[in-house]
Specification:
By secondary structure, the chain is of the alpha+beta class. The protein has helices spanning 8-18, 30-54, 63-71, 162-174, 183-192, 225-235, 278-298, 310-318; strands at 84-89, 98-101, 104-113, 116-121, 136-137, 147-154, 196-202, 211-217, 254-258, 260-272, 307-308, 323-331, 338-339, 344-354. It is extended and about 95 Å long.
Length: 357
Amino acid sequence: MFIEDKTLNNILTDMKTAAGAGTETREGTLVDHSLRGAAAEFEQAYIGLWMVEQNGYAQTADREHLVLRARERGIAPYPATNAVWQAEFNMDPGLGARFSAGELTYRCIEKTGVKTYRLMCEQAGIKGNTRQGELVPVSYIKGFENGALAELLIPARDEEGTEEFRTRYLASVSEAEAFGGNRAQYKSLMHRIEGVGACKIYRVTHDDRRIRICFLDSGYKTPNQALVEDVQEIIDPIGKQGEGEGKAPIFHFVDILPCRSEPVNIEAEITTAPDWTWEDLLPEIRQKTDACFLESAKNWENEDRITVRILKVNAAIAAVPGIIDVQNTALNGKQENLLLERDEIPVRGGITCRPSS
């Protein structure tokens, strides 16, 4: 529907023309006053019709109507999740004990060992993935002296964004139907598990009659062993593999594996501005490089193998204020793009600045 020309003035002009050549329609006349109000209402009606058309298609719908449309296929945006940490104490606080650290609060949900517990952040979203100080009891706990978050076990994620959800919905329409343990079903199962961000499914072969699923956590990093074990328990529990006790169909033997992190050492001739030193610039260079590699990790699921490109690394470094030029860059000792293995993602290694020649 084309409504660009359906403005109040254009509608009013058309209505005055339809009134006939002998009718006085100049501004201020009775006809002008009568038609102007109607033209304004028609303009709003056209806008309403345009909005109905836009929200009738998944590609152009706003979030509210996109969610309603996707619900017809049983699809909904992934909600924000809660981070789960391993915590260590000087004593056993007990299940249900609550602690604060910075602006966040945590609750003991599982005892994992002597004076060690799993703590769930009570605030949903990625803010729970960052340590904010030592743990302090919300209520008095006898014998408590100290406690600390030791390891992030299950990273949290924010609520799925509109465009990410739109892409997933459109993919669900065009891709094969998920059923019977096919690739689409396994991918759907994996993405529903809290803490999983991406995965690749490898089918059985003549020599290996097992299905392999390699995955990244929701932060697109190598998952820790605790998360790997949790996902394995959900999909195909160890000791009962092939029995259909998990999400995998019966007689499917599924091994859950973590995607590996490959350190990428960067060496380059970097020219800095006169007022900047290498030590001043290095922290932001690390941040830009991390962001560059994170984007690669986010694409890992849809690529056969990740290629770390010198062009992108140079662009990330050059984006740092104070950097004038980047040349002769080497990745892991070679001045060429770095092709990783199928189940590897790049992470920042060392960054070395060579003097410009």
